[in-house]
Design brief:
The structure is a single chain. This protein has 475 residues and is mainly α. The chain folds into 2 domains: 2-146 and 227-341, no CATH class; 371-470, no CATH class. Helices cover 63% and strands 4% of the residues. It has helices at 2-14, 17-20, 26-40, 63-102, 107-121, 130-145, 153-169, 175-186, 191-207, 215-225, 228-231, 247-266, 270-285, 290-310, 315-333, 340-351, 354-357, 385-394, 407-422, 428-435, 447-454; strands at 381-383, 439-443, 458-462, 466-470. It has a 4-stranded mixed beta sheet with strand order 1-2-4-3. A hairpin with a 3-residue loop joins β3 and β4. The longest helix has 40 residues, at 63-102. It starts with a helix and ends in a 5-residue tail after the last strand.
Length: 475
């Protein structure tokens, strides 16, 4: 619990979560989508936010998370949203430690791995529903570790309710049946256990259908994830740059996870080895999956290392393990859950101080916060996907945008054209003229801005973040 409290404070104030959690503009349309759901009492089935996809079928596949954050926003504004997601991240830290204990991990080793967890996960600490998806993932692995006895109606109900809820919160719900299948494969030599996991996987696969789109959600998610032409154009689905500053801890987490998976195979836990292989491959292919490595594979590594140390004859290691057990016993005796509401209230109070309130929300050095009031109310505005999500938020969904972060809605062909435009590649003028834009809002250093100015478009507003241009003739 202490680590969860530290994580909450670190995320909100040292990491500056009141601002950094909003560095991805998708938070904007998630908030407005949630508000719309609450106002109308029904889900959107067609796109309400763009003029390029108006009327097109849209899967609001994270509708329940959107509705929850919409309610939080109504009650507490962006500060409330920041506290909501920071609390979810802190709950994840608490659950992560519980996963260590379920896998037989060592208290001191878990504490030593905690900085790796924070370093890896904070690359994707954002005010978006995937953070809640992390909680479901760890809970699913924890439940698989604690499986015992027959798979009766109570177990089926737990799996069904959790998976149904997960399917309405985040598209990562497909991990629920997958985890069941992985554990069933790992327990192939123990038929009763293997049947338990197979039944859990079957229930999870069916329970996910309890969503507003039914089987259509499965098909949509599957088509999205196998569309390499689309995913190759989305930054967070690309491989992480391991030459970037601060990548050493991410590499350490990956290596530790792989070593833990190998040790798990030696200790006859093939399901842990299979999870390690699966998540390592995902992590190497997509930066978005790297937090999953830290969330699941570090507890696996801890359990494997602790088991290996317990088999050694050295008195030093045995003393280390005994000391760690005593610390764990002390930790169990400390019931810090009662302090959680007090800490949340304290954090809320700090968020209301004038200095922090003035800096809460979308960072003005990344979004057109100052430029917004200069944008014409009519006409077609070209802007980037990052700016588009912010404009949806700032206008409460009333300003139709050219593009935003809902890549599954826009599709690969649209992203190809968008890439040609923003990179000013040959043929960009034809695409530009086809959309009949009347103004353009771009990052100040965008190559397209310079090309438009050269073509006769006039700057209306410029600051260190954005430039607003009025129509000219593009030839």
């Amino acid at each position: 619990m202490a680590v969860a409290c530290i994580t909450l404070i670190y995320c909100l104030f040292f990491f500056q979560g009141y601002r950094q959690l909003f560095r991805d503009s998708d938070a904007g349309w998630h908030i407005r989508s949630g508000e719309t759901i609450l106002q109308t009492g029904r889900l959107p089935h067609t796109d309400p936010y763009s003029f390029t996809r108006a009327g097109t079928a849209w899967f609001a596949w994270e509708w329940l998370a959107d509705a929850a954050v919409g309610a939080v926003y109504r009650a507490g504004g962006l500060a409330g949203v920041a506290l909501f997601y920071a609390a979810a991240i802190a709950a994840g830290a608490w659950l992560w430690f519980r996963l260590h204990w379920a896998m037989g991990g060592n208290f001191l080793l878990a504490c030593a791995m905690a900085p790796l967890l924070l370093s890896v996960c904070n690359i994707h600490w954002l005010a978006r529903p995937h953070v809640i998806g992390w909680l479901f993932l760890m809970a699913a692995v924890w439940y698989a570790e604690c499986a015992a006895g027959d798979f009766g109606w109570r177990e089926a109900a737990v799996v069904a309710l959790a998976t149904a809820l997960w399917a309405n919160v985040h598209a990562s719900f497909f991990f629920a049946p997958l985890i069941g299948l992985v554990y069933a494969a790992g327990k192939f030599s123990d038929l009763p256990k293997a049947r338990w996991y197979l039944r859990a996987a079957a229930v999870a696969a069916v329970a996910g259908l309890a969503n507003p789109y039914g089987w259509g959600l499965y098909r949509h998610v599957f088509d999205y994830l196998r569309n390499s032409e689309l995913l190759n154009r989305i930054g967070e689905f690309q491989s992480f740059d391991f030459h970037a500053d601060g990548s050493g801890q991410i590499l350490a987490a990956l290596i530790l996870g792989m070593c833990g998976g190998t040790l798990a195979l030696v200790r006859k836990r093939p399901e842990h080895f299979l999870l390690a292989i699966l998540l390592t491959v995902l992590g190497l292919r997509s930066a978005r999956a790297l937090p999953l490595v830290a969330l699941v594979l570090l507890p696996i590594a801890n359990g494997a290392i602790t088991d290996a140390l317990s088999r050694t004859a050295g008195t030093g290691w045995q003393r280390f393990l005994a000391y760690s057990r005593r610390l764990r016993e002390l930790d169990c005796g400390f019931h810090g859950l009662a302090l959680a509401p007090l800490l949340l209230c304290l954090c809320w109070g700090v968020l209301q101080t004038p200095a922090i309130r003035a800096n809460t929300g979308f960072p003005p050095d990344q979004f057109p916060v100052a430029a917004y009031s200069h944008i014409p109310l009519d006409g077609r505005l070209f802007t980037t996907d990052k700016f588009g999500g912010y404009l949806i938020y700032r206008s409460a969904g009333t300003r139709r945008v050219f593009f935003d972060g809902r890549s599954d809605l826009y599709g690969a062909e649209f992203l190809k054209e968008y890439g040609r435009l923003v990179q000013v590649r040959p043929g960009w003028q034809d695409i530009w003229n086809r959309y009949a834009f009347s103004s353009a809002l771009l990052p100040t250093d965008a190559p397209l801005g310079a090309a438009l100015e050269q073509a006769g478009w006039q700057p209306v507003y410029r600051d260190g973040t954005a430039i607003l241009l009025a129509r000219g003739a593009v030839r």
